Amino acid sequence: MTTFPVPDPDVDLVLPCLNEAGALPWVLSRIPSGWRALVVDNGSTDGSAELARALGATVVREERRGFGAACHAGLTAATADIVCFCDCDGSLDPALLVPFVAEVRAGEADLVLGRRRPTERGAWPPHARAGNIALARMLRRRTGLRLHDLGPLRAARREALLGLGLTDRRSGYPLQMVVRAADAGWRVTEHDVPYLARTGVSKVTGTWRGTWQAVRDMRRVLAEPPVSDRASASTGVQVPSPAAAGDPALAPSRGGTAR
């Protein structure tokens, strides 16, 4: 059995939730002691919100449908120094976030991501995995980060995340977080995590409509200009990067690492 370090109590875990009553008991039972679970109910009709509350989680309601809307509602409701994200469908173990938090807390990384590694047949449909590979390649071209996955298991500091000014409220939210973090010069790391077969049917990759919407949302995010260009467009003043300003010591590191 894997042994984890003692968790930091100053952590909020955001769990976007839409009809996940079947997975909630296991997911909430795996949250490290001392962490606060923020289950963001995104319009469930299966009693997920009531079940989560009965199991001791803090329930946040987000009426606007969309994965990004649920994630951001959880982020704005969080108060802890470090915020983590995890799907609420039983495909990922929240306990795996403990070393992610330790890495952020130690100042070794600004954003830590989990690279999903399927452990069961059918855990990750072939079309979804192929799309993720293509997306990771496009992300590398756009940002220079050498990442392999944009999985939902992640950890970062709350104030820094809020400072990214994330605007996507649908499937592009996780990608926009990474793109804007890269533009800001964050140190982004990636670690392998077991990926299990989810409980129920995916709202995104489980349907053609959901898959197409996700692709469209992510293409829009990748088409965003870097933050310096966005500032220039809105103010008319060019905002140089630290490297462009001639200070190599302040130049952001653009190479994410996979460990």
Explain what you see.
By secondary structure, the protein is of the alpha/beta class. The protein contains nine helices and eight strands. The protein has an eight-stranded mixed sheet, sandwiched between helices. Helix 5 packs parallel to helix 8. The two termini are 20 Å apart. The relative contact order is 0.15. About 10% of the residues have low confidence.
Features:
259 residues; alpha/beta; 8-stranded mixed beta sheet; 8 strands
- Main β-sheet, spatial strand arrangement: 3-2-1-4-6-5-7-8
Largest sheet: 8 strands, mixed
Radius of gyration: 18 Å
- State the order of secondary-structure elements, H for helix, E for strand: EHEHEHEHEHEHHEHHE
**Integer average pLDDT:** 83
Supply the helix-strand structural class. alpha/beta
Unreliable residue stretches: 231-255
Helical stretch tally: 9
Assign an overall shape. globular
Kindly estimate the percentage of residues that lie in beta strands according to DSSP: 15-25%
The oligomeric status of these chains comes to single chain
Helicity, as a percent range: 25-40%
Rounded to the nearest angstrom, the distance between the terminal CA atoms is 20 Å
* Count of distinct strands: 8
SSE blueprint:
Blueprint: E1 11-17, H1 24-29, E2 36-41, H2 48-54, E3 58-61, H3 67-77, E4 82-85, H4 98-105, E5 111-118, H5 126-143, E6 154-157, H6 158-163, H7 173-183, E7 188-195, H8 208-222, H9 227-235, E8 257-258
Parallel strand pairs: 1-2, 1-4, 2-3, 5-7, 7-8
Antiparallel strand pairs: 4-6, 5-6
Brief summary of the model shown:
This protein is an alpha/beta fold and 259 residues long.
